[in-house]
Specification:
- By secondary structure, this protein is α/β, with parallel strands linked by helices.
- It is built from twelve helices and five strands.
- It has a five-stranded parallel β-sheet with strand order 3-2-1-4-5, sandwiched between helices.
- Helix 3 runs antiparallel to helix 4 and helix 6 runs parallel beside helix 11.
- The radius of gyration is 17 Å and the shape is globular.
- The relative contact order is 0.20.
Length: 217
């Protein structure tokens, strides 16, 4: 019997950053993919992001280092880039319904810091969860199996009791190895697919539905 729900944040509970970051880049006079390429393709940019995820850099330190690479102002860089990121209404409804049905609901997130920009508070999702496992606070990040084990421990459940939803396919394998049922978040039907697995008969119609489908990484 499934008794727990584990949810990723970015791209699952929140709209993906792609649309927001591209809009910010254009406002700054940068190529539209400058944010993505700095974090993923630039060796120093990628290294700084890994350090941020693991909590070895503060968000303020990361803002300064990444801003220097991109040639922009560092003040609240993360918050400025995420200014158009919002919670996904259908996923909020899923979390609320799961908790109301007696499931333990956990947030498992590779973080990007919480000060000065706290993505969980700004999008209004923090209080939806019984358990919070944030990479920067733990010094562990997905797909390290240890962070999934820690999540299960804090939930008080076995892997076979839980469903895990993440938008990055690489993060699903370690969960499956622990017996967790996984859902790959790929679009606006993610909440409905997950609800069906959990046996939750709820209305997941999202008043903001188009944002789920239209925002791409």
């Amino acid at each position: 019997m499934l008794r727990g729900l584990i949810l990723d944040f970015a791209g699952v509970m929140s709209t993906p950053i792609g649309q927001s970051s591209r809009a910010w880049c254009l406002r700054e006079g940068l190529p539209a993919d400058a944010w993505r390429s700095t974090l993923e393709d630039d060796p120093l940019g990628r290294a700084l992001y890994v350090e941020l995820e693991l909590g070895r850099l503060s968000q303020t330190e990361w803002n300064e280092g990444t801003a220097a690479i991109m040639g922009v102002e560092p003040a609240n860089l993360m918050g400025r880039v995420h200014s158009e990121v919002r919670a996904v209404p259908s996923m909020v409804a899923l979390a609320v319904a799961a908790r109301a049905a007696g499931l333990v609901v956990a947030l498992l997130s590779n973080s990007y810091g919480i000060d000065p920009y706290n993505p969980y508070v700004e999008t209004g999702v923090w209080d939806l969860f019984d358990v919070h496992v944030i990479s920067g606070a733990e010094g562990l990040a997905k797909p390290d199996p240890a962070i999934y084990e820690l999540t299960l421990e804090r939930m008080g459940l076995a892997g076979r009791d839980c469903v895990f939803v993440d938008d990055h396919f690489a993060n699903l394998g370690p969960a499956e190895a622990l017996g967790i049922t996984t859902v790959h978040a790929t679009g606006p039907d993610t909440a409905a697919r997950t609800a069906q697995l959990l046996g939750l008969d709820i209305d997941l119609a999202s008043p903001g539905g188009p944002e789920d489908a239209s925002v791409q990484v």
